[in-house]
């Protein structure tokens, strides 16, 4: 989450663990909310006892930290379930076990109401004039057809390469086949639709523009609520706090937070910073 909360990142790619581990991870926000909610209720009931045992100041700090932990879990859930911010792409191979695991993952993601936008079937046998490879390819095409019939999402395939995909150059070649050649996007926040065979909607994390006497900084904070944010300055540097973590925001000139106008609307924090000569 620290990368999602950091506005200097435009796109974050999360390569998840195998299906079983991933599904357990995705259930954590609900578990965190239920667990922390029960603890907070217990802390409200036992407030006097805690104050006697730990002192009022430490007791309040414990409660505040637990509340911050609960808010972060809720934030994770909002980000993961927002189709304008997050997209899950299933990646599999054209074999029986891979197909079964993919269908199970898709059903579980739908149960959690998480946005699955596509499926990539990797390492498909190329169409070559050899009986063994032809039988292999025919079997694989049957598995791919099953995925197309069962999953209500776009399916794309990638044939097996003649050598292992390693190194930046090979990854760029692979990326060009999936997404097309790179194109320069505007500096504004977006969203932007990218990709050809695999499609995603992305935002920039930060966009800065200047008026006559003010610098306007737009920060994309998906899923955040007002109480999750804080703003302060130190030695002329501006800091935005997100669920207790702080990030320095570059400004043209030194600034005091009391001089900054801030507004959070539609997942975008707008900061108006006065320019000084």
Topology:
Layout: H1 19-26, H2 28-45, H3 47-54, H4 56-80, E1 88-92, H5 96-111, E2 116-124, H6 131-150, E3 155-159, H7 167-179, E4 192-194, E5 200-202, E6 206-210, E7 214-220, E8 229-234, E9 237-242, E10 245-249, E11 261-265, E12 268-274
What's the CATH H-level homologous superfamily of the largest domain? P-loop containing nucleotide triphosphate hydrolases
The total count of helices amounts to 7
Overall structural class, as computed from helix and strand content, comes to: alpha+beta
Q: Give the proportion of residues in helices.
A: 25-40%
Cα(first) to Cα(last) distance is 37 Å
Shape: globular
What portion of residues belong to β-strands?
15-25%
Strand order of the biggest β-sheet: 6-7-12-11
Question: Helix-strand pattern, N to C?
Answer: HHHHEHEHEHEEEEEEEEE
CATH topology of the largest domain: Rossmann fold
* Uncertain stretches: none
CATH top level of the largest domain is Alpha Beta
Mean of all residue-level pLDDT scores = 82
**Count of all domains:** 3
Q: How many β strands by DSSP? A: 12
Word description of this protein:
- This protein has about 280 residues and is of the alpha+beta class.
- It folds into 3 domains: about 60 residues; about 110 residues, P-loop containing nucleotide triphosphate hydrolases (Rossmann fold), CATH 3.40.50.300; about 70 residues, Immunoglobulin-like (Sandwich), CATH 2.60.40.790.
- The protein is about 40% helix and about 25% strand.
- It contains 7 helices and 12 strands.
- The strands form 4 sheets. Strands 6-7-12-11 form a 4-stranded antiparallel beta sheet, with no helix packed on it. The protein has a 3-stranded parallel beta sheet with strand order 1-2-3, with helices on one face.
- Helix 2 packs antiparallel against helix 4 and helix 3 crosses helix 4.
- The chain is globular.
- The model has no long low-confidence stretch (mean pLDDT about 80).
């Amino acid at each position: 989450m620290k990368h999602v909360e950091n506005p200097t990142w435009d796109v974050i790619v999360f390569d998840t663990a195998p299906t079983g581990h991933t599904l357990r991870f995705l259930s954590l926000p609900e578990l965190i909310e239920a667990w922390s909610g029960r603890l907070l209720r217990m802390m409200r009931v036992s407030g006097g006892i805690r104050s006697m045992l730990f002192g009022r100041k430490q007791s309040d700090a414990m409660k505040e930290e637990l509340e911050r932990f609960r808010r972060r879990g809720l934030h994770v859930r909002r980000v993961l379930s927002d189709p304008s911010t997050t997209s899950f792409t299933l990646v599999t191979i054209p074999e029986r076990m891979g197909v079964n695991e993919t269908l199970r993952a898709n059903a579980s993601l739908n149960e959690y109401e998480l946005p699955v936008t596509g499926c990539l079937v990797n390492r498909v046998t190329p169409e070559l004039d050899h009986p063994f490879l032809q039988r292999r390819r025919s079997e694989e095409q049957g598995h791919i057809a099953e995925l197309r019939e069962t999953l209500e999402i776009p399916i794309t395939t990638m044939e097996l390469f003649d050598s292992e995909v390693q190194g930046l150059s090979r990854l760029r070649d692979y990326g060009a086949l999936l997404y097309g050649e790179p194109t320069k996007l505007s500096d504004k926040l977006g969203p932007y639709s990218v990709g050809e065979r695999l499609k995603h909607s992305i935002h920039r994390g930060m966009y800065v523009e200047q008026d006559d006497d003010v610098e306007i900084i737009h920060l994309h904070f998906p899923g955040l609520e007002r109480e999750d944010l804080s703003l302060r300055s130190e030695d002329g540097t501006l800091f935005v706090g997100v669920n207790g973590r702080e990030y320095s925001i570059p400004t043209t000139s030194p600034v005091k937070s009391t001089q900054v106008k801030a507004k959070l609307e539609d997942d975008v924090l707008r900061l108006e910073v006065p320019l000084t000569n």
